[in-house]
Structure formats: structure tokens, C-alpha cells
Design a protein that fits this description.
mainly alpha; 257 residues
């Protein structure tokens, strides 16, 4: 517990860390409001085909694909910041056992992200549905509770995945160079090409996007997946588990340089 408190204090006393957490909420909520307003404007246009073409939940969850950028930045800086400044050496000397250090830092990151991601999902849903106006839905409609839980898990798992990758590569810039192309250029860019969807659908964010209503079943004409929503979340959890295990192995076997 003392290691957890020490890591929590270190994270919160670095000026950029609270700002990165605030950005998660701001981007998730702001993105939902903008998308909701854009969809509503299109649906209110007499020449538009109507709201049935787009799931209203999409307005609240698509912004989370942008909010995950701030989640990644926070997780990477929580790990890589100590390597960049060299303070990781002091932390490892002060902590009896690298396993305790790793668990303490992961616990601190998890505690902060769990609250921030919960607020982000709630804010995004409220903002997106309010922006849709008469086309918005409430918490009791459709499978909104499942979507909310899945969206929260999505952001948490992306954070853990980034934490593990950052521990392996150590340097913040290098970690960003690995994660951002993987999460954005790969699945959201190349992953939209029909020729590559068969493989790209198993990348971390592509797998987790199903439960957020950003993808669909095999018969979906735009973003088909070969699995169900919870299976997709399990695939993302597998990526996160492998990254965390690799991070711990790297921390144990290498020096702090």
C-alpha cells in the first residue's frame, strides 16, 4: 500500500499528468457533443435519409476513440516519464522488489483511470444524446448499460496496453511512435480497407470497438467483425495482458538505464 501511495503521489505531482486526465474527459465529452450535433443537422435536413441509418449510441461512443489518445498519453508518461528523467533508478532502489514497484505503479494508474474513464463515458453519453435532441436515447433504452460498461472497459484496457508497451520500450517518444500508428493508422486507417479487414479486425482497438457500437456482426456492410461484442472485448483484454506481462518481464530482466 505504501508503494501504491508513493506512485499515486508521484503521478499527481507532475503537472502534465492531471492535464492529460482532464483531456480524457474533455475530448470524450466534447467529441460526443460535436458528433451528435453533426448527426442531428444531417437528420433534420429534408434531403437526408433519416436517423435510421446511424445508431444513436454512435454519437456518444465515437468520441472515445479520440479520448483514448489522452489515455495513451497518460499511461505512457506515467511510465516513461521516470525513465526520461532518470528518477526510475531512485524508485527501484527505494522499493524492495521490482514486482512491488510494477504493481504499485500499475495500481496507481488503474485507480486514476478507473474514475476518469467512468466520468468520461457518462459525460460522453449525456453530451452525445443531448446533442441529438429528439433523436437521442436514454439510459434505459436499448443496451446502453452494456455499452457503457464495455466502453469503460475499452478505455481501461487501452490504458493497460499502453502501460505495458511503455514499460517495454521505456522511452515516451518511442512508445507513442509504436502505439499511435497501431491504434489509429492501423485499425482506423488501413483497417477500413476491405482487403485488410480480415486481419485488422483483431488489432486492439478494432476488437474493442464492437461493444461500443462502432462495428457490427459479419453481415454489417461497413465495419463487419467475425466475433461478438464481448469476444471482441476479450481479444482486447488479451492484448493488454500480453503487454503487461511483457512489461513486467522487461522490468525484471533489464537495468534501469
Amino acid at each position: 500500500m505504501s508503494v501504491f501511495r508513493a506512485e499515486l503521489t508521484k503521478i499527481l505531482t507532475v503537472r502534465s499528468m492531471p492535464w492529460s486526465l482532464a483531456a480524457v474527459v474533455a475530448v470524450g465529452g466534447g467529441g460526443a457533443a460535436l458528433i451528435g450535433r453533426a448527426l442531428r443537422a444531417g437528420w433534420e435536413d429534408p434531403s437526408a435519409d433519416g436517423p435510421g441509418l446511424v445508431d444513436p449510441v454512435f454519437a456518444s461512443t465515437y468520441g472515445l476513440t479520440l479520448a483514448q489518445l489522452a489515455v495513451v498519453v497518460f499511461a505512457v508518461l506515467a511510465v516513461g516519464g521516470e525513465y526520461a528523467t532518470g528518477t526510475v533508478r531512485v524508485s527501484l532502489v527505494a522499493t524492495p522488489g521490482r514486482g512491488r514497484y510494477y504493481a504499485g505503479k500499475l495500481g496507481a494508474v488503474t485507480a486514476l483511470l478507473s474514475v476518469v474513464c467512468l466520468v468520461t463515458v457518462a459525460t460522453g453519453f449525456a453530451a452525445g444524446q443531448a446533442a441529438l435532441g429528439p433523436w437521442g436515447i436514454g439510459w434505459g433504452d436499448r443496451d446502453t448499460y452494456r455499452t457503457a460498461v464495455g466502453s469503460w472497459l475499452y478505455l481501461m484496457l487501452i490504458g493497460w496496453f499502453a502501460f505495458g508497451v511503455a514499460t517495454v520500450v521505456r522511452r515516451p517518444a518511442l512508445a507513442m511512435g509504436v502505439l499511435l500508428p497501431l491504434l489509429f493508422l492501423g485499425s482506423q486507417g488501413l483497417g477500413n480497407l476491405p482487403q485488410l479487414q480480415e486481419v485488422m479486425q483483431f488489432l486492439p482497438d478494432s476488437a474493442g470497438s464492437f461493444i461500443m457500437h462502432l462495428a457490427g456482426p459479419p453481415e454489417d456492410p461497413a465495419f463487419p467483425r467475425a466475433y461478438g461484442p464481448w469476444t471482441g472485448t476479450a481479444i482486447l483484454a488479451g492484448w493488454a495482458a500480453v503487454a503487461l506481462a511483457a512489461g513486467y518481464a522487461a522490468l525484471r530482466r533489464r537495468d534501469a538505464g
